[in-house]
Write a structure and sequence with these properties.
By secondary structure, the chain is mainly alpha-helical. It has 14 helices and four strands. The strands form two sheets. The protein has a two-stranded antiparallel ribbon. A two-stranded antiparallel sheet has the order 2-3.
C-alpha cells in the first residue's frame, strides 16, 4: 500500500513538473496573449468592427522592422556573439540608397540592392574583426555602431534626405479586403526572412553548426566544424537583415535623418531574448524571436491605443520585458534542475 501511495505521489509530482515546464517553455506566448487581453478589456473599442483585425495587421507590420533585424540578431546570439551595430547599419545602408536615388536617379530595386550590399559589407567587416583579428564582438560592433553612423553623417553633411515619390509608392503597395487595407511590402519581407531563417536553422547542416558553435566552440572544432566560417556567416546575415529592415522602414516614411534607427539594436536583442534566445549562445529559435518582436510592438501599440501617458509608456514596456526575462530565467533554472536530476554517480 505504501508503495502504491509513493507511486501516486511521484506521478502527481511528475505531472506538476510537466505542467510547469510547459508553461515556462511557452511563457512569452502566454504573456503575449495575457497582455493582449488585458489591454483589450481595458479598451472595448479594440474589439469593435474591424478594429481588432486592423490592430493585428498594424502590429505585424510595425513589428516586421524590428523582427527582421531580430532574426539576424538571433543568428549572432546563437553563436554566443552580439551585434550592436544593426541600428547604424540600417542608417548607413539607407543613406547609400537615398543618395543613389536622389543624385544618380536609381530606381527602387537597384537602390535596394545597393543597400543590401552596404549592409552585408558592414556585417563582413564585423566578421573579419571577430574571426581574423580576434577582437571581442561587443567591442567590434560597438565601434562599428559609431563608425557606420559617422560615415552616414559625413555622406549627408548631417542633412535630412527626402526620398523620391517612387520610394513611397513602393512602400505603400497594398491589397484591400473590404474596408481593410494591408501594406504588404514589410509583411512579405518579414515572412520571407522568417521562413528562410527557420529552414536554415532547423533543416540544414549550417543551422546545426550554428548551434554547435554556440554550445561549445572547442567541441565543435574537434567535431570538424569550421567555427570561423560559421561565426563570419552569422555577422554577414545580421548585416544583410539590418540593411533590408532599414530599406523597408524608410520606404514607409520616405524621410531619413541622423536619428534614424537609433536604439534599434536594443529592440532586436530584447526581442530575441524575450523569445528564449540565450545571450550565452546555443539556445533559441526564430519563431520565439518573432513572438518576442510581436510582443514588444504590441505593448507599444496598445499603450498608444489606450492613450497612456507618454512618460509612463517606457516604464510599462520595461516592466513587461522584465517579467518576460524573469520567466525566461525561471525556465533556464528549471532546465538545469531537470538535467541534474538525470545525473547518476559513477559506480566504482
Amino acid at each position: 500500500m505504501n508503495v502504491s501511495i509513493l507511486k501516486t505521489n511521484r506521478s502527481a509530482a511528475n505531472g506538476r513538473t510537466n505542467i510547469t515546464q510547459l508553461l515556462l517553455n511557452n511563457s512569452t506566448l502566454i504573456l503575449f496573449v495575457a497582455v493582449f487581453l488585458i489591454f483589450g478589456l481595458s479598451s472595448p473599442k479594440l474589439f469593435e468592427g474591424n478594429n481588432l483585425v486592423n490592430s493585428l495587421i498594424n502590429i505585424i507590420k510595425q513589428a516586421s522592422f524590428t523582427g527582421i533585424i531580430a532574426v539576424g540578431m538571433t543568428f549572432v546570439l546563437l553563436t554566443g556573439g552580439i551585434d550592436l551595430s544593426v541600428g547604424s547599419n540600417m542608417y548607413l545602408s539607407s543613406v547609400v540608397a537615398g543618395l543613389l536615388m536622389r543624385q544618380q536617379g536609381f530606381e527602387v530595386l537597384p537602390a535596394l540592392l545597393a543597400a543590401l550590399v552596404t549592409g552585408t559589407l558592414v556585417g563582413a567587416f564585423n566578421a573579419v574583426c571577430v574571426v581574423k583579428l580576434k577582437i571581442v564582438p561587443f567591442m567590434v560592433t560597438l565601434g562599428t555602431l559609431v563608425v557606420a553612423r559617422g560615415i552616414g553623417t559625413f555622406l549627408t553633411d548631417s542633412k535630412q534626405i527626402d526620398f523620391p515619390q517612387r520610394m513611397l509608392d513602393f512602400g505603400q503597395i497594398h491589397v484591400t479586403f473590404g474596408a481593410i487595407q494591408i501594406q504588404i511590402v514589410p509583411i512579405i519581407a518579414f515572412f520571407i526572412i522568417i521562413a528562410l531563417a527557420y529552414i536554415i536553422l532547423t533543416r540544414t547542416p549550417v543551422g546545426r553548426q550554428v548551434y554547435a558553435v554556440g554550445n561549445d566552440i572547442e567541441v565543435a572544432k574537434k567535431a570538424g566544424i569550421n567555427a570561423d566560417r560559421v561565426t563570419a556567416m552569422v555577422y554577414i546575415v545580421s548585416g544583410f537583415c539590418a540593411a533590408l529592415a532599414g530599406f523597408i522602414l524608410i520606404a514607409q516614411i520616405g524621410r531619413l535623418d541622423r536619428s534614424f534607427a537609433e536604439g534599434k539594436e536594443f529592440d532586436a536583442i530584447a526581442a530575441a531574448v524575450l523569445g528564449g534566445t540565450s545571450l550565452f549562445g546555443g539556445v533559441g529559435n526564430v519563431l520565439g524571436t518573432v513572438i518576442g518582436a510581436l510582443l514588444i510592438q504590441m505593448v507599444q501599440y496598445m499603450l498608444q491605443f489606450n492613450n497612456v501617458n507618454l512618460y509612463i509608456q517606457p516604464m510599462v514596456r520595461a516592466a513587461i520585458i522584465f517579467i518576460a526575462v524573469f520567466f525566461d530565467s525561471l525556465r533556464e533554472a528549471n532546465l538545469a534542475k531537470l538535467k541534474r536530476r538525470f545525473i547518476r554517480p559513477v559506480e566504482s
